[in-house]
Design goal:
The protein has 9 helices and 10 strands. With 223 residues, it is an alpha+beta fold. A 4-stranded antiparallel β-sheet has the order 1-2-4-3, covered by helices on one side. A 3-stranded antiparallel β-sheet has the order 5-8-9, covered by helices on one side. It is globular and about 55 Å long. InterPro entries: Kinase-like_dom_sf. This is Aminoglycoside phosphotransferase. It comes from Kineosporia babensis.
Length: 223
């Protein structure tokens, strides 16, 4: 479930799941990790585990989902947000390393690092109001190379209509991306294309097919 609660002390974004749901662990993990996420993430107000449910309440992120289509005025703000995110150190404990998350498909040293990576680059998780962005849903972060979140967002830009070259030009606004080893990024893009294509073959979700096409297009452009 997800809802906005209008209370005497202000609005609260509330989300949760039954304790036996496959996603219940993500709500517990997000509550545990909220103290480590950057200031652009809404603060947790409470975590409740009772009555067969696990529920979190957060400060409400005001605004709309970021627009990543070509020519969007949101793109420079998004690049600035990713630049800030690429400097946030991950805690030594509790966070899965990127070397483990992608171990089956990419050499661990290519994605290794000590930065807190959000990993879920859907524009729905980037809520913009004015010239500031709130980044929500820190339920599956990892610890890795500073350029990973930007790479994941490039796939979203290509899906939204950017060419791979133009999407990479935008990514160049993020210093961590500009200094990333080219061979590491290329290997990551190729792995992302394989992973998304495998998921698209086993799911009817249209967005997975579109993301797979975007990642494949990008991988082809880089090689």
């Amino acid at each position: 479930m997800a809802a906005v609660l209008h209370t005497a002390s202000g609005d609260v974004f509330c989300k949760g799941a039954s304790v036996d749901a496959p996603t219940a662990w993500t709500h517990r993990r997000e509550a545990q990790l909220n103290q480590f996420v950057p200031p652009i993430a809404p603060r947790i107000r409470w975590h409740i585990a009772t009555g067969g449910w696990v529920v979190n309440g957060f400060d409400r992120a005001l605004g709309r989902h970021v627009d990543v289509t070509p020519g969007s005025p949101d793109l420079p703000v998004l690049a600035s947000t990713l630049t800030m995110m690429s400097t946030v150190r991950a805690p030594a404990a509790m966070i899965q390393p990127a070397t483990a998350r992608w171990a089956a498909a990419i050499a661990p040293d290519l994605v290794d690092g000590d930065i807190l990576i959000h990993t879920d680059a859907t524009p729905k998780n980037y809520v913009i109001e004015g010239n500031s962005i709130s980044v929500v849903d820190w339920s599956a972060p990892c610890r890795g190379a500073a350029w990973i979140d930007t790479a994941l967002m490039v796939i979203r830009l290509i899906r939204a209509g950017h060419t791979p070259d133009r999407a990479e030009q935008w990514a160049g606004l993020v210093p961590a991306w500009s200094s990333a080893p080219r061979h590491a990024v290329t290997a990551f893009v190729e792995q992302s294309a394989r992973r998304l294509n495998n998921r698209a073959q086993t799911s009817p979700a249209v967005h997975l097919r579109e993301l797979a096409q975007a990642a494949t297009s990008w991988a082809s452009a880089r090689t």
